[in-house]
Amino acid sequence: MHTHIYISLLTQSNSLSLTLRQIRRSSYHDVVRVSEIENALDIRGVQTYVINSARVLFLNERPQPKNSSHGAASSTPKTMSYFCETCCRTLLDPFRFCSLGCKVEGMRKNKEEEEERLRKERQQETHKGTHPPTHTSNSRRRKGIPHRAPFAS
């Protein structure tokens, strides 16, 4: 996942002068401090974590733990599970995405789905007037007018 390609999708302003102060490594994953990125990018809906007393978010999608299964019953039935909309990773809180990369991917998919929906709507509107009207009555009846035998007198 190349987060930097889609970074312009998430910028709150149209300025292209986006500089991150420092990308850190945490458990072999790239993270960035929320305080350094929240003014430059829209990070709403992305799960944040506290690592070494700093609130951070992951830049790229993280692999699933080997022993987890999406949708499995939890050990405590009262707890509610939340999942990343892109990679289905379990989240701790009611966020939509586990990382900035997943948010970018989710936004890209939503944009593509919306464009496809609009394209189909436009296509249906243009074809509405071009179809010949369908006949509701049967054009070839199976039976004609019933003929009775003449009365014998």
Automatic annotation (TrEMBL):
InterPro entries reported for this sequence: PLATZ (IPR006734)
Region annotation Disordered: where it falls in the sequence: 108-153
Origin: domain of life: Eukaryota
Biased composition range(s): Basic and acidic residues: 108-128
Name used for this protein in its record: PLATZ transcription factor family protein
Species of origin: Arabidopsis thaliana
